[in-house]
Amino acid sequence: MSFLQSLTDRERVFDFLIPASSPVDVRHGPILYLEDVTVSFDGFKAINDLNLTIDDGELRCIIGPNGAGKTTMMDIITGKTRPDRGSVWFGSRHNLLAMNEPDIASLGIGRKFQKPTVFEALTVFENLELAMAADKRILPTLTARMTGETRDRIEEVLVTIGLTELRQRPAGILSHGQKQWLEIGMLLMQRPRLLLVDEPVAGMTEQEMERTAELLTGLAGKGKQSVVVVEHDMGFVRSIARTVTVLHQGSVLAEGSMDQVSNDPKVVEVYLGADPDEEAA
Ligand SMILES: Nc1ncnc2c1ncn2[C@@H]1O[C@H](COP(=O)(O)OP(=O)(O)OP(=O)(O)O)[C@@H](O)[C@H]1O
Asked: ipTM of the predicted structure?
């Protein structure tokens, strides 16, 4: 590629645009890489030689029966649980096993737990504002200049999560689904590189599930976020999944398209049963 062509290459991230504190080399390769990771609790291997690679901009669904190790895997990525052995890398530069939880979060790894934890007495707008204020990377001296930028970012996020109309309403009046979207929005305020989302559609109406599918598929993409979704609802997984990883007994049992994994006899045997859509949560 010529220099002139490279200037117009929208995928290209110029070195000088990557802040000094920038977390990851987002220009190529996998964004998350787990190799031979094992963790035991009282001698029981919850994660057993786990290998997993997530590409930049990918939307990956992780499924698996209860106790397969999905939550433990997320805990390892975010630094909450230390594995006994193995390696976990974010981009090509960051050894996550050498970092603590806050440092991992500040690299741009955001986690959304199953239950929404928005501040109910604050407005939707204020919740987003607070999420930005929690970003320790913003220097106090830049605050005045950041205010306008923060407002713009909030507007942008409100559109993404579909809550523009409700911006001045207290978060307490939102439906369950809307609270989940607001919480995803709060993570987006910090422009994460990787979002880990735990059972996003549990307790949602059909309509909310459809909207969540649109939201998550829209978030993933090159130059945007990579999204890892752990979900039990097979209908939902089918509606968003490109690549599905099936965990079983702490290892990857199968990986591929939803059709590939749901026709894999190993998966049928341990998890999906005869009809994947009838899988119990
Ligand atoms: N802190 C812990 N101490 C002891 N055992 C644990 C601990 N955390 C997880 N485990 C065990 O490790 C295994 C994997 O649990 P994990 O919660 O990761 O599974 P999961 O796939 O997320 O399950 P679910 O779908 O039910 O949430 C389970 O057998 C669980 O009981």
From this structure: 0.94
